[in-house]
Write a structure and sequence with these properties.
- The protein has 460 residues and is α/β, with parallel strands linked by helices.
- It folds into 3 domains: 184 residues, Alpha/beta knot (3-Layer(aba) Sandwich), CATH 3.40.1280.10; 53 residues, no CATH class; 185 residues, 3-Layer(aba) Sandwich (Alpha/beta knot), CATH 3.40.1280.10.
- The chain is built from 18 helices and 18 strands.
- The strands form 5 sheets. It has a 7-stranded parallel sheet, with helices on both faces.
- Strand 3 and strand 4 form a beta hairpin.
- The longest helix has 19 residues.
- The protein starts with a strand and ends in a 16-residue tail after the last helix.
């Protein structure tokens, strides 16, 4: 593969391309580099940049300079796939790197192996455009970029480090660069899980020993241990990665072993009513149906409906008796399965006691409120805080309030308080069943995405 890099400072790459695996790949003619200094595209004493148009400070690289540099690259090695590094680009991840690798290395490698390439994939020249200052003129990206990439949600002084990060990740997929492709295929972010823990001698270091199973010589047992450790590490550190990685059925089954059991309680007592006073509300049949269905969808162990009123409990039990009967099962099997998770309770303490009886330990209480007051700041968590909660390895009880929300006494008992669900308006009056569905999805749901696709520049 031929790689052209357009930059203000080619010197930045001297050690990068002459060190370690990239140097070896270069020596073995797997890759070849061409550096184009932007100042060489200008006349003597002519600047490569000019002030940005409109209010504000900063310098922007001239469009004609970038265009001339790209033309120089393509005159040397033919048409290339042009990548610009910019905060406005797609965020780089392992899936996107793999998609690039599949596109770039396919035909290049077949040609290197002496095979006749019959595919339409002819990309063997990669052009990386590394801006400085305030970047490049937006019209250049619009006209010439085949792809725009960002390596993260932060700003650097230029595109050279992002280019090196991109190349480090990309070239690992090229056969012949990394010694064993197995180490690339089974590493972090290549699937649903992060990598498993790895160890080297000595057996004991600073009082810490290599696990016995790793030293057992039982390859099947070691492989099973590694899978479980990878799943546990992912759950407790990067559930956001797992949930967006398009996990397979077996991945989901494995990861469930390390997600603590979750419970839901809908409070009709110990809630705020008129003027913020603590009181009680009536049970609504829609809440029973819809929240039980949400609970079934997201794997909630039990859904507790909490009321201290005997007449409300009686009505609830009549409802549950029907849906748990053979008649209810025949009427709607899906509703039957969902409603079977429902358990009546008289107060929050009774819910906690029931969970402790089942789990052997009290649950962590996570409360929700649209307008919480007098709650310790340290209790607040967001919808990316699973690791903070799950590392405690205790069951989790999500508590929702009817009326005007949970009473202060409930909020004070909580271990954590989720930030409110918000839209981009000042209206904040969701039904509790809607709030439960949204929160369960954000906390326990999968956020699957299409496999990374690379836009292929149409042939002219």
């Amino acid at each position: 593969m031929k790689i052209s890099i357009i930059t203000v400072f080619p010197e930045i790459y001297e050690s990068f391309v002459n060190t370690s695996l990239i140097a070896r790949a270069k020596d073995e003619k797997l890759i070849e580099f061409n550096f184009v200094r932007l100042s060489d595209m200008c006349k003597p004493k002519e600047r490569i940049d000019e002030p940005t148009c409109g209010p504000g400070v900063g310098m922007i690289i001239k469009p004609e300079v970038i265009e001339k540099a790209i033309n120089a690259c393509q005159e040397k090695w033919g048409d290339g796939f042009k990548i610009f590094f910019t905060p406005q680009g797609k965020k780089l991840d392992q899936g996107l790197l793999k998609a690039f690798a599949d596109k770039f290395f396919d035909s290049t490698l077949r040609q290197a192996q002496g095979e006749r390439d019959t595919s339409s994939n002819k990309i063997s020249h990669l052009i990386l455009v590394c801006a400085r200052y305030e970047g490049v003129d937006a019209r250049v990206e619009q006209k010439l970029a085949d792809e725009k990439l960002s390596i993260g949600d932060y700003v650097l002084m230029g595109g050279d480090l992002p280019a090196q990060v991109f190349l480090e990740g990309l070239l690992r997929f090229m056969p012949g660069v990394v010694g064993k492709m197995e180490s690339v295929e089974k590493e972090s972010f290549s699937g649903a899980f992060l990598d498993y823990p790895q160890f080297g001698l000595p057996v004991e270091w600073n009082g810490l020993k290599i696990p016995e199973i790793v030293r057992s010589g039982n390859h099947a047992a070691i492989e099973e241990w590694r899978k479980k450790q990878a799943a546990k590490i992912t759950v407790q550190n990067r559930f956001d990665w797992f949930s967006s990685s398009n996990p397979k059925t077996e991945d989901i089954k494995l990861v469930k072993e390390f997600i603590p059991n979750h419970y839901v309680a809908l409070m009709h007592t110990q809630v705020k009513v008129k003027k913020g006073k603590a009181g009680n509300t009536s049970i609504a049949s829609l809440d029973i149906h819809d929240i039980s269905r949400s609970s079934a969808t997201y794997g909630i162990e039990n859904y507790f409906i909490v009321t201290q009123f005997l007449d409300q409990q009686k009505i609830l039990n009549i409802f549950l008796d029907f849906w748990r009967s053979e008649e209810g099962k025949k009427y709607n099997i899906n509703r039957f399965e969902a409603v079977n998770r429902v358990i009546p309770a008289v107060n929050l303490d009774a819910v906690v006691a029931k969970i402790k009886e089942k789990e052997g330990v009290e649950p962590l209480i996570v409360t929700t409120s649209a307008r919480a007051e007098n709650v310790e700041e340290t209790k607040y968590i967001d919808f990316f805080s699973q690791s903070k909660v799950w590392k405690k390895e205790r069951p989790v009880l999500l508590v929702f309030g009817t009326g005007q929300g949970l009473a202060d006494e409930v909020l004070q008992k909580s271990d954590f308080l989720l930030l409110p669900v918000e839209g981009m308006t000042d209206y904040n009056h969701l039904s509790v069943r809607s709030a439960v569905a949204i929160i369960l999805d954000r906390w326990l749901g999968l956020n699957c995405k299409n496999e990374a696709k690379i836009v292929e520049k149409e042939s002219e």
